[in-house]
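Pasting as-is:
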Amino acid sequence: MNSNEHITLTRDVKGHIVPDGTKVTLEKGELAVITQSLGGNYTVIVNGNMFRLDAMDADALGLEVAAKPIANNPENSGTPGTIEEIEQEAWDQMRTCYDPEIPTNIVDLGLVYDCRFEPLDAPNSYKAQVKMTLTAPGCGMGGVISEEVRNKILAIVGIEEADVELIFEPLWNQDMMSEAAQLEMGLM
């Protein structure tokens, strides 16, 4: 969803300034324009500044808060799948995370360098370890994006712990993007 329509905030809402990541409160009655609505979160412009709002705060924009997605196939009734299925689900979940300024998911942007799982003591339970980067080392949204990745991976049945580490070796560059992402962004 991209819109140029002005929306009046229906309540005070916490958000993060893009790109520095500072947490702020936007006030009820302020006018916002939604510039990006991907992965359940919203990027808005308020008073000429860009902010990221979490999915759970959609009501502040006058929108319905979406039900929290079930991370695994609902047919498995909360039973963890195989490690291969859990790994695929982790990658699928990371594909629902977006940089608030770029309408391409972090996997296709090439920001996720590694995702591994180690078994925990309890049967069918794992710890996920993700190594990812940012498009720029100084991006203040790193903590916000990595926490979103962590939360989405923890929603997967069988994942009991998740660590998301921001690394900057190697430095990200546009060549790390998937071919589809490069085409979508007009880089090919």
